[in-house]
Here is the input.
Amino acid sequence: MNDPNRNEMKQLDARRTLLPGLVLIACTLLWGCADLEDVAENPPVSEESPPDQVLFDSVVTDSKDGTRSWVLRSERMERWQDVDDAQLHGVLMDFYKADTLHSTLTSRRGRANLKTLDLFAWGDVVVVTRDGRRLETQELNYDDGTGLISNDVFNRFTHRRDVMTGIGMEATPDLGSFELKSEVKAEVVEAAEEDE
Here is the structure.
């Protein structure tokens, strides 16, 4: 026959044994939660967080000595407070010389530093000049200080039927000065062949 007093004593002993462990777990959880609350109240500024400002069909223009240097358009620009870089979606950048359009850069994505005015473009990057020269690559840097475009990835450069490929490049945005750095291959069509 079960003794009710004996069962109560067993339950009380079990509670006394579990209580210190539960207190330790509760303290650990509370300590961890306090840290999480601090992070939630003061999240680090990061592009992983939602942007503070979203601009659609944005246009940024740069001029030097009163003439346009370039015009940067994007379908969507995302900005974060206290972050100099803006994320761009659907990039179109026109480059000018003496206020005359010389070339256009397009890419799926970009990152523009609104202080230095430098641009990093990626995703199906294409630069096309008014005279038909064409650069195709997957990423490209534009340095506003030097006025040059460059990268360290694969490039395909075409002019009429001539094709050059290589890894890494540096050029002026109008592709008038163009240098491939390594693994350069060229397929040049003779002028006589073009005339036929």
